[in-house]
């Protein structure tokens, strides 16, 4: 479709934003069994980047908003390069989002796992 | 992935919103050859619904905002039911969005074509 190879995650964050919102909304829809649409906060994505051990790759001086953009760009890049399908991403996120648990914490965990499964982070394996 | 069969387009519009934004942003990115993210206005989607001959199916008393939601729901339904892939949708939209032409008019045309190709509208064929 699009040749976006060579683009950095930050350049791709604009496209990652609607993709991440779609994936997150689909996962919430699956877990809560009704159509839901919700934006992911930069703060949640920034924490997921940190927990996946990607903060240094993102650069030491990045603000939270920029870390969130970085996460969106990474996820978009993985999807555009066919390393991650929307279906896989939704299943990974839905696996962390359980009704009754804190949405913020479970969303951070879900995106951390998503970043690792997409090939980013330390060895692609959860260390928790 | 999700079993959303039996849901009406209006129920699915919440999920159609991020999907349509993703498709539109990808199409703009393809046409303008740089990452772009843009939301589609309800007004553009409402006109596309009318041009595709779907206004009556949507109900006669629907306001523009509701018609836009209806379009989002229809597109989501086609995608969820595997009648339309994201790649196909992007190609269809990008075929209408040409640099230099009015973005609003070409976007309406693009979404009209998309709705028809997704199996909605009069016979699925453009009548223009």
Detail the topology: elements first, then pairings.
The structure is a homodimer of 128-residue chains.
Chain A: H1 9-32, H2 42-51, H3 55-58, H4 64-80, H5 86-96, H6 103-117
Helix pairs in contact in A: 1-4, 1-5, 2-4, 2-6, 5-6
What does it look like?
The structure is a homodimer of 128-residue chains. The first copy, chain A, has 128 residues and is mainly α. Helix content of chain A is 63%, strand content 0%. Chain A has 6 helices and no strands. Chain A has helices at residues 9-32, 42-51, 55-58, 64-80, 86-96, 103-117. In chain A, helix 2 packs across helix 4, helix 2 crosses helix 6 (103-117) and helix 5 (86-96) crosses helix 6. Mean pLDDT of chain A is 88; it is low at 124-128. Chains A and B meet through helix 1 and helix 5 of A and helix 1 and helix 5 of B.
């Amino acid at each position: 479709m699009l040749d976006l190879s060579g683009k950095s995650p930050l350049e791709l964050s604009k496209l990652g934003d609607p993709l991440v919102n779609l994936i997150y909304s689909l996962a919430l829809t699956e877990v809560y069994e009704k159509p839901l649409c919700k934006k992911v906060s930069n703060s949640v994505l920034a924490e997921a980047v940190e927990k996946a051990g990607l903060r240094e790759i993102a650069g030491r001086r990045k603000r939270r908003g920029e870390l969130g953009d970085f996460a969106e760009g990474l996820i978009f890049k993985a999807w555009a390069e066919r390393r991650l399908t929307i279906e896989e991403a939704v299943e990974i996120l839905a696996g962390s989002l359980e009704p009754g648990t804190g949405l913020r914490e479970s969303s951070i965990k879900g995106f951390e796992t998503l970043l690792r499964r997409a090939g980013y982070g330390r060895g692609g394996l959860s260390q928790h």
